[in-house]
Amino acid sequence: MTDNPIHIIGGGLAGCEAAWQAAASGATVVLHEMRPLRGTEAHQTDLLAELVCSNSFRADDWEYNAVGLLHAEMRRLGSLIMACADACQTPAGGALAVDRDGFSKAVTRRIAAHPAIRVERGEVSSIPSHWANVIVATGPLTSPDLAAAILGLTGEDVLSFFDAIAPILHADTIDMTVAWKQSRYDKAGPAGDEAAYINCPMTREEYDAFIDAVLAGPKSEFKGWEDVPYFDGCLPLEVMAERGRETPRHGPMKPVGLTNPHQPTIKPYAVVQLRQDNALGTLWNMVGFQTKLKHAAQTEIFRTIPGLGKAVFARLGGLHRNTFLNSPRVLDERLRLRAAPRLRFAGQITGVEGYVESAAIGLLAGRLAAADAAGRDCAPPPPTTALGALVAHITAGHLSAGARSFQPMNINYGLLPPLEAPPQDADGRRLPRGERGRARKRAMSVRALADLKDWADAQTEGPPGSVRAL
Ligand SMILES: Cc1cc2nc3c(=O)[nH]c(=O)nc-3n(C[C@H](O)[C@H](O)[C@H](O)COP(=O)(O)OP(=O)(O)OC[C@H]3O[C@@H](n4cnc5c(N)ncnc54)[C@H](O)[C@@H]3O)c2cc1C
């Protein structure tokens, strides 16, 4: 190991991907992870890249889904996180879900075995001035001392808001004479299963009573915050219900694309879905049931769901702090802190949202830091790619008036520049209205992968063989 390694703080999804990419680009890396010496409110193990809530990396469809496109781009750039996710898949319809422990163990093993990466356990509470090339990837649950040190360096507000976790329960406690297995619209996913979800049906009366109980149930109190801003993509169940009694039924509890084989002629009014959480299939999580209901109330209320009357919970839901930078103001386009360019940021702390997006920013931060270490010039991919669009979202926003209200964001096609011309049929005619949206997404995805290839080909150095053929 050289005297000038890249120091990466945080061995989560972003930090591990950054370490892998930097090492693959020829740099040496020290990866600092505080667990198990110091824990967070959500992590439960000492493993690297632990998944704190859902075990899903979301849709795996590169043609028509923006996160699927991000998967594809990351795979093409030799992503460690995607390689381990692919190796640890569990059935999940059209989504890419993983065996939670198997995935984190695979990442931990591969990082530990890499000769250019050294893992150091222990909290980094301030950043030593002699570290010349640093990536901060400490995530939404950055330890308070380091958060304060970062706040001091940025001279800006570090925003905090809350995210919630969904419960996980033991499969053998689900009553399958009431529940049934089926993926919505029988869609087979990457793990090849059309019956990937367990579905629990509800009548209108059961749904109404359930919503009443969720609204009335005791919730965890916030300490010191009154108007807590939530991320819209991860709303607690009770917050959804407060926005409208029918909102959960149009969200995670929607009854569409499903037929109950126990009562095929009766259409459920709402459906609670569970997704496999580990490879053994012994644990299942309640999809979209992140909640701040108190634990005793969760057990009581969730057992009123048909099929879950005797459910035993392996983990109950909870509520946790999230921390992220006002990145459009404080970061430059290469993810460096304007006020201290030796510091680069990656992962959820930059204001992207989700496992995949966090790892994606880690991937770029690792490559950019390695290029700095080698004295090479390296710019992020163009914004026509999903990777480039994410970076542009979190860094270029300082040019826009919206920077003050910067909020964490999942990847979506709206972040990519529009096509120069709308897609046409084979005869050059405008497509019918119903086909335009899908065709537009596919054309944007095809453009993204082509532009990513051009970008990667133009890098003078980098991880060898880093772009695989289309
Ligand atoms: C409660 C909760 C639920 C979530 N649920 C989902 C979900 O279901 N799906 C989804 O896609 N995303 C979810 N997210 C978002 C998700 O956490 C992130 O997208 C992802 O884990 C972030 O990756 P990261 O690498 O930035 O941070 P993390 O994966 O959290 O990794 C950061 C690492 O840094 C370590 N660390 C922190 N401070 C220090 C320090 N001072 N010194 C050394 N090490 C330190 C931590 O121990 C941790 O291992 C959730 C977030 C929270 C908080």
Describe the structure.
With 470 residues, the chain is of the alpha+beta class. The protein has two domains: 6-161 and 322-458, FAD/NAD(P)-binding domain (3-Layer(bba) Sandwich), CATH 3.50.50; 167-316, Elongation Factor Tu (Ef-tu), domain 3. It is built from 13 helices and 17 strands. It has a six-stranded mixed sheet, covered by helices on one side. Strands 10-11-12-13-9-14 form a six-stranded antiparallel sheet. The radius of gyration is 22 Å and the shape is globular. The relative contact order is 0.17. The model is unreliable at 398-404 and 464-470 (pLDDT under 50). The structure holds flavin-adenine dinucleotide.
Which key features would you list for this structure?
470 residues, alpha+beta, 2 domains, 6-stranded antiparallel sheet, 13 helices, binds flavin-adenine dinucleotide
Structure described in brief:
This protein is α+β, with helices and mostly antiparallel strands. It contains 13 helices and 17 strands.
